[in-house]
Amino acid sequence: MTAQISNLFKIKDKExxxxxxSGDINFDPRDYxxxxxxxxxxxxxxxxxxxxxxxxxxxxxxxHVNNATDDYPEINGVKPIxxxxxxxxxxxxxxxxxxxxxxxxxxxxxxxxxxxxxMGYQDPHAYQELLMLTFNNGELVLTKDxxxxxxxxxxxxxxxxxxxxKNIKSDLKExxxxxxxxxxxxxxx
Length: 189
Hints:
The protein is α+β, with helices and mostly antiparallel strands. It is built from four helices and ten strands, in the order βββββαβββββααα.
């Protein structure tokens, strides 16, 4: 199994990995006439996006997609750019599609390579910076910095890595399912 390409989130000239959410973010390229298919094992969804906050509203700023057919429609007045040779995707830049999302989104920046796992999505404590954003109907209402909490959790892991790994991997099926889940654990609220 392969680590997955994360959706990205731009905040103040930094690109954060979108590593979790409290509910479905309600963005689907199928709503725009596309049928995403996996271009390779690092992207089973067949797409990823770069989100941003514009005028306090959550938007998909850029969309990268591998469509089931070679037909890529114009979306929101934006024509796609063929970047398949470089990235396996067509890209829609500055497409600015609004996302009417209510819930929390967990973002990570400054990935610590020593915590890399070669399956699914990366764990929240594997990032130096951790932010929790809260949205109501697509509008940002709260930003909470959880970086210190992630650092404290890393100290626990580093104190006894063998025990930590044994504990989280004791139920292999659950461990695999969780690795591919974007659901936020209660620990991070």
